[in-house]
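quick q for whoever's on today - can somebody do inverse folding on this one?? i tried earlier but teh output was garbage lol. tokens:
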């Protein structure tokens, strides 16, 4: 863990110029979540999307806070980063008080933004030997995030559980590999009844296949799901985003590839929808398509140290540009 802590210190020094206070307002006028994006663009370039690895965008319902995952180049160290908006200004990104020691990823706001679900490999159930990923949550009380708690073992097994997403009913959708699954990795759903999560079931074959399905975002009404899959015949390369719509009878439609507007020949994943402002966010490892000859060492360094160096960035596009509704 010492190596992880060192990596996070390096991340902070690279990005945030540590001499600045944590409440310093951003001097860059590049963070605008309130306007609908006309086309596909990298989100908050050089502030959120940087040469490091960013993924998993989440915006709270009030629109004054956002959280994402920040990792080093190889994702050997990852932490949850928070940006807060006060006095109409976004503050500098900072590592969350509940994160930084373990690998924490994939935030999701629930309970009107006062509960944060996420995945983490921190030790669980007082077992210091456990390093698998499980689903945890933290509550915001008096504007502070509480010490995270793990979900019950009906959800968290000794395998990995990833990417929590909850509907308005409180039902939990997540990624796992289980014996009752459909393929190599699947999306499961656990109903929330009488204050508890029930035994998860895999989503049907309209969504899960024999290949890999993962990182599913569920709409509040559970009538739309967007997820990633790898290995399908229509995969454009590296893993693509797909969607499925639930009809009035409660049946999911056959999932469809979101197409070349969204998907690239690299990994595209981690979907999120800001319904208030009608924007779709996702993570992509897409990179330069330039075939220009590299003529100098400085030129190579400049390419390697740009946001489009092949590590993850967060992208945004207006919902009206997508044929999913």
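ok took a stab at it. sequence:
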């Amino acid at each position: 863990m010492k190596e992880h802590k060192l990596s996070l210190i390096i991340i902070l020094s690279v990005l945030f110029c540590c001499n600045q206070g944590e409440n310093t307002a951003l001097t860059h006028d590049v963070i605008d979540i309130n306007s609908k994006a006309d086309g596909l663009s990298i989100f908050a370039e050089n502030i959120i999307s940087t040469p490091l690895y960013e993924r998993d965008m989440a915006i709270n319902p009030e629109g004054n806070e956002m959280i994402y995952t920040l990792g080093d180049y190889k994702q050997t160290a990852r932490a949850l980063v928070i940006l807060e908006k006060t006095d109409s200004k976004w503050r500098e990104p900072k590592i969350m008080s509940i994160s930084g020691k373990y690998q924490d990823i994939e935030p999701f706001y629930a309970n009107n933004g006062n509960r944060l679900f996420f995945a983490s490999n921190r030790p669980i159930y007082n077992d210091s030997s456990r390093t698998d990923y499980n689903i945890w949550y933290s509550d915001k009380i008096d504007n502070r995030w509480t010490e995270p708690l793990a979900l019950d073992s009906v959800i968290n097994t000794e395998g990995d559980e990833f990417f929590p997403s909850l509907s308005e009913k409180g039902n939990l959708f997540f990624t796992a590999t289980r014996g009752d699954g459909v393929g190599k990795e699947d999306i499961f759903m656990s109903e929330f009844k009488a204050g508890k999560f029930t035994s998860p079931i895999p989503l049907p074959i309209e969504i899960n296949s024999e290949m890999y399905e993962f990182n599913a975002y569920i709409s509040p009404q559970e009538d739309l799901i967007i997820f990633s899959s790898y290995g399908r015949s229509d995969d454009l390369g590296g893993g693509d985003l797909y969607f499925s719509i639930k009809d009035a009878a409660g049946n999911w439609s056959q999932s469809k590839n979101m197409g070349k507007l969204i998907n690239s020949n690299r990994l595209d994943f981690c979907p999120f929808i800001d319904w208030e402002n009608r924007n779709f966010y996702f993570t992509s490892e897409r990179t330069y398509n330039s075939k220009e000859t590299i003529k100098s060492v400085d030129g190579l360094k400049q390419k390697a140290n740009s946001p489009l160096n092949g590590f993850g960035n967060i992208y945004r596009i207006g919902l009206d540009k997508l044929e999913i509704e």
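fwiw The longest helix spans residues 2-16. also The helical segments are 2-16, 297-304. so keep that in mind when u check it
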